[in-house]
Design brief:
The chain is of the alpha/beta class. The protein has helices at 3-26, 42-56, 85-94, 115-121, 137-140, 152-161, 182-191, 200-205, 236-250, 263-269, 273-296, 335-347, 353-364, 374-388, 404-416, 451-459; strands at residues 31-37, 69-73, 125-130, 166-168, 195-197, 211-213, 255-261, 301-307, 310-311, 315-316, 394-396, 401-403, 419-420, 426-427, 431-437. The chain has two domains: 29-315 and 425-459, 3-Layer(aba) Sandwich (Alkaline Phosphatase, subunit A), CATH 3.40.720.10; 324-417, no CATH class. Helices cover 42% and strands 13% of the residues. Helix 2 crosses helix 11 (273-296), helix 9 runs parallel beside helix 11 (273-296) and helix 14 runs antiparallel to helix 15. The structure holds zinc ion. The site of zinc ion has 7 residues, from helix 10.
Length: 465
């Protein structure tokens, strides 16, 4: 081979690499999906896969656990090693640490620009969707700046006055002492020129106007748990679908969409494993819609999946080096709904132990499908007599107030499957991060939750500040 040929070949290869490299550098995240599983820890995730494998055969894998980036980040807040959803939403949206309870402001109360506002600055359309209140902490972190996560009126005011194009959630949360009702907030949103609808399909079709999508029942603070859902009622999957259809059409320069699996946190606060697994499956079904979108725009789509904090300290296989998830397959109702059924039983005067036994057989499979140890049976009987019959104390969690009888029965069922919980609250466990799509390599450098929005901004070709 002569020298000249070698030089030419080297030049040609260099030019080729440059062109390919430039093409690559131009690839930016035009479509950003940001999924936050509220309360989702690694055990809730792996537990769901084990449950799915038991229920349906196969490996039960969730779509996102196959993403190329599979890492974890620290998530403490400024005020505590254990974050709440407000400080975590602030970290995930603005890249700064703040105190628990604060939204979109630093610990001194100074406003911080969030990733949705950054996207808006690039001409992107923006959206949030959740299955809890639209002004609950996680979605609010993407449109509000407020020192009090509980100031629901202020959060709504900021949502209406802001630039978020699409917002979906169960309802508007209202503090009772404000004297306001969700309907009052609907009126205020309409006054601000926002289209407010209560059907996902209608929301998807709104053109040239900001839209707020709510559930068909504004008096319910949340969408029903997946396990309790009736045929025809809308879910976070329908909300995600509507958001994608709307944003794809309205966002010709691109879009950023935050989707929260908000009820995972609720079932974990209740220490209710099966309800949690079904919530994680709903979350996964929403992510699969983003993956369908990715298939259509593989060079321009970024999908980030993470969590704000772990809730409950769930342990999968806490004893004897084993699990027995076959025993979970007969639960067909959440602890929250089981509480409702028990309260109706009491109202109807159905106060026999046999009535309670048949209820627990029907909804959890206890005795019939799941054998109980003598001590389990004793404990259920004792709770029935001391608590249920005397209309006794409830197990009061952050969001719910459950019948002790319902909590005890589900606790025993969880233990029979070798699942246990250490807390009714959040833990300081680090949280998982899964990423796929354009710019995913940047996320290998994320060590803390505040690094995530910075990496997203970079993938969009800009900076957070
Ligand atoms: Zn929580």
């Amino acid at each position: 081979m002569n020298r000249r040929f070698l030089q030419r070949a080297t030049l040609a290869v260099t030019l080729l690499l440059l062109v390919v490299g430039m093409g690559h550098a131009q690839n930016r995240a035009k479509y950003v999906f940001y999924f936050i599983g509220d309360g989702l820890g690694i055990n809730q995730t792996y537990g769901t896969e084990l449950y799915n494998a038991q229920a349906g055969g196969g490996d039960g894998r969730l779509s996102f656990t196959r993403f190329p980036v599979r890492t974890y980040v620290t998530n403490h807040s400024s005020s505590s090693a254990v974050t709440d959803s407000a400080a975590a939403a602030t970290a995930l949206a603005t890249g700064i640490k703040t105190n628990n309870g604060y939204l979109g402001v630093d610990k001194e109360g100074e406003q911080a620009r969030n990733i949705a506002e950054v996207a808006k600055g690039l001409g992107y359309a923006t959206g949030v969707a959740t299955n809890v209140g639209i002004n609950h902490a996680t979605p609010s972190g993407f449109y509000a700046h407020c020192k009090d996560r509980g100031d629901y009126t202020e959060l709504c005011t900021q949502l209406f006055a802001g630039e978020m194009d699409f917002a979906a959630g169960a309802t508007f949360l209202c503090r009772s002492r404000s004297g306001l009702k969700p309907q009052d907030m609907v009126a205020r949103a309409r006054e601000a020129g926002i289209e407010v609808v209560q059907s996902a399909d209608k929301a998807a079709q709104v053109r040239g106007k900001r839209v707020i999508l709510l559930s068909d029942s504004l008096s319910r603070k949340n969408l029903p748990f997946a396990i309790d859902r009736r045929e025809g009622s809308e879910s976070i999957v329908d909300f995600t679908d509507a958001a994608i259809r709307y944003l794809e059409r309205e966002g010709d320069k691109g879009f950023l969409l935050m989707i929260e699996g908000g009820r995972i946190d609720y079932s974990c606060h209740d220490n209710d494993a099966v309800t949690t697994f079904k919530e994680v499956n709903d979350f996964d079904a929403s992510i699969r819609l983003a993956l369908d979108f990715y298939e259509r725009h593989p060079d321009q789509t970024l999908i980030v999946v993470t969590s704000d904090h772990e809730t409950g300290g769930m342990a999968v296989g806490y004893s004897k080096y084993k699990i027995n998830f076959e025993r979970l397959l007969h639960q067909d109702i959440s602890m929250e709904s089981l509480t409702g059924v028990m309260q109706r039983m009491r109202e109807q005067g159905k106060m026999d132990w046999e009535d309670m036994q048949s209820l627990l057989k029907e909804h959890l499979g206890l005795w019939d499908k799941v054998s109980l140890r003598e001590k389990d049976e004793k404990s259920l009987r004792k709770t029935f007599e001391k608590n249920f019959l005397n209309n006794g104390e409830k197990v009061v969690g952050l969001y719910t107030s459950n019948e002790k009888m319902a909590a005890e029965a589900i606790k025993i069922l969880n233990k029979r499957a070798y699942i246990d919980w250490i807390s009714l609250s959040h833990t300081g466990m680090q949280v998982p991060l899964w990423v796929k799509g354009v710019g995913y390599e940047r996320f290998y450098e994320c060590y803390d939750n505040t690094d995530i929005p910075k990496a997203i901004a970079e993938a969009m070709g800009t900076n957070l500040r």
